[in-house]
Structures are given as structure tokens and as C-alpha cells.
Design a protein that fits this description.
Elements: H1 2-19, H2 22-27, E1 29-38, E2 48-51, H3 55-66, E3 67-80, E4 83-94, E5 100-112, E6 115-123, H4 125-133, H5 138-149
Parallel strand pairs: 1-6
Antiparallel strand pairs: 1-2, 3-4, 4-5, 5-6
């Protein structure tokens, strides 16, 4: 029973978040909501470590400003009591040039009383930066790393 409630809460959270439904997203979260998206905050200041529900409307508004559409497809979900893990494919259409950026996102949730208390998110931020910029950074980045390894 608890697993069914927790699974549905996470599904509702994802649907509300990607559709831009602030109230629906907030309804899925505990008052002591804590989130960490492991990404460089210098490039993604609306991500990183955030505590409390105010992060949610800010993150949704930031994404609405940057992207004309936000879609996801759930590839995997696993539920173990209060813990839920998901893998999603996310596609965001940039407002300024209509290019679509896509990435895989791994998310881990811990729920209390049927609401999300902790959220952890991982994605390949290097790949996403390349897509946002519209060009490959691998060669210049690799040259910099090789030089640093020789020191």
C-alpha cells in the first residue's frame, strides 16, 4: 500500500513539474523538502542544493523562461518502501533558437507520509552544456585536462 502511494506521488510530481503545474508539484512535496541536482551551479543557478518549497516555483519559472516546451518520458521506476528511483528522458525546446536539447535524468526520492522529502537528481551536465551552446567542447576540454594531468 505505501509503495503504491509513493509511486503515484512521484509520478504526479514528474507530470506536474514538466507540465509547469506549480501547485501540483508543491502538493507532492513535504514542507521540509530538500533537493540536490548535481550540476555546475555556475551554469545552472536554479539547480544545485535547495531546501524548502520555494525552489519549486523558481525552478519551474526559470525553465519556462528558457524553454518553450518541456517533455519527459519515464523509462524506469523502482519503489522500495519510502524510496523511489526513476530514469527519464527529457527534451527541452529552447526559446531563443527552437533547438531541442535532450538528456537522461536519474532521480532518487525519499518520501515521508506520502510526500517527497528528499530529491536527488543526476544528469550529464557536460553533454547538456554542449547541446545548449550548439557545439562540441570535447576537444578543447580534453586539451585542458591533458595539460592539467601533466602538472
Amino acid at each position: 500500500m505505501v509503495e503504491t502511494v509513493n509511486r503515484q506521488c512521484v509520478l504526479d510530481f514528474l507530470k506536474a513539474f514538466y507540465s509547469g503545474d506549480v501547485e501540483g508539484t508543491l502538493a507532492c512535496c513535504d514542507d521540509d523538502f530538500d533537493t540536490i541536482t548535481y550540476a555546475p551551479v555556475e551554469l545552472f543557478p536554479h539547480l544545485g542544493h535547495k531546501h524548502g518549497k520555494p525552489w519549486i516555483p523558481d525552478a519551474i519559472e526559470t525553465q519556462k523562461k528558457r524553454y518553450s516546451s518541456r517533455n519527459y518520458a519515464l523509462d524506469f521506476i523502482a519503489v522500495d518502501g519510502a524510496r523511489v528511483a526513476t530514469m527519464t528522458r527529457v527534451a527541452l525546446t529552447k526559446r531563443n533558437d527552437e533547438r531541442v536539447v535532450q538528456f537522461e535524468n536519474a532521480e532518487f526520492f525519499t518520501l515521508t507520509n506520502g510526500r517527497i522529502r528528499e530529491h536527488r537528481s543526476f544528469f550529464d551536465s557536460f553533454d547538456l552544456v554542449q547541446q545548449v551552446l550548439g557545439h562540441d567542447l570535447t576537444e578543447s576540454f580534453a586539451a585542458t585536462v591533458r595539460g592539467a594531468m601533466l602538472r
